[in-house]
Amino acid sequence: MSLTRLHACCAARDEAGVLISGVAGAGKSDLLLRLIGRGYRLVADDRVELEDGLARAPAALRGLIEIRGWGVIRRPFIEAVRPVLMVRLVRAGAGVPRLPDCREAHDPETDLPVLWLDGMLASAPDRIDAALDCLTGRAFRLPQGAMLTGDD
């Protein structure tokens, strides 16, 4: 199989991998650190290799994570995970649709379901949990507009 290299991070919850991508300074490592703090396992920070359906860190970066303002530290990590979700980080105020069209919600680079997210939001890890819950059958996403009854 072919090897794909991404400028991204990867965390694992149970057997489900989450790829986090965005421009430099968007908060990829910060969001990864918050996910690790809530029980996710580190797979990769800054660079991810995708091969045979698995995500892993390049050998030289395994177990390393950058903490902006502190430096690079070594953390426990897992070798590889099968990614099920791509999180694309956007800057605050960027036009993220409230209810995206589910048919168009796949990442063109990885063909994974994509969650567009401001990674600096306090709720960002909760939103990732909810998306993973839907993708792993713990919760179910309703059709667009199914429960909207108010003006909020």
Automatic annotation (TrEMBL):
Keywords annotated in UniProt: Kinase, Transferase
Keyword Kinase (UniProt): yes
Single GO molecular function: kinase activity
Segments forming a coiled coil: none
Pfam families assigned: Hpr_kinase_C
Source species, domain of life: Bacteria
All copies of domain HPr kinase/phosphorylase C-terminal, residue ranges: 4-73
InterPro entries for this protein: Hpr_kin/Pase_C, P-loop_NTPase
Protein name in the entry: Serine kinase
Organism: Acetobacter musti
